[in-house]
Amino acid sequence: MSTRTIPLSEEAEERLAALAESTGLSTDEFLRSRIEAMLLCHDPVYTKASEYLLTKNAELYRRLA
Predict the structure, then answer these.
(1) Cα(8)–Cα(10) distance, rounded to whole angstroms?
(2) Are 9 and 19 in contact (CB under 8 A)?
(3) pLDDT exceeds 90 at position 51
(4) Contact at 8 Å (CB) between 16 and 27?
(5) DSSP, res 6
(6) Is residue 12 predicted with pLDDT exceeding 90?
(7) What Å distances lie between residue 7 and 11, 17, 20, 23, 24, CA to CA?
């Protein structure tokens, strides 16, 4: 596992700490989970599967709207 250092303004650090606290996670755990979620959304397999589901269920979504 690698480690990165990212400079943040004091305001950004405070907002990050508040967001992490609101989820019950440490700042490191919160950042790790958000980064992993972002990377998953850009995974070609995930993208293809989500596009398939949206297309397959388009009529259902239209009726529910």
Answers:
(1) 6
(2) no
(3) no
(4) yes
(5) -
(6) yes
(7) 12, 14, 17, 22, 23
- Stated length of the chain: 65
Which pTM does this prediction carry?
0.62
* Residue carrying the six token digits 């972002």: 38
Who has greater pLDDT, 51 or 33? Answer: 33
Q: Are 30 and 23 in contact (CB under 8 A)?
A: yes
So where are the chain's domains? Answer: 38-65
Q: Determine the Cα–Cα distance for residues 39 and 34; give it in Å rounded to an integer.
A: 9
Helix (H) or strand (E) holding 11: helix 10-23
Say yes or no to pLDDT of 48 above 90. Answer: no
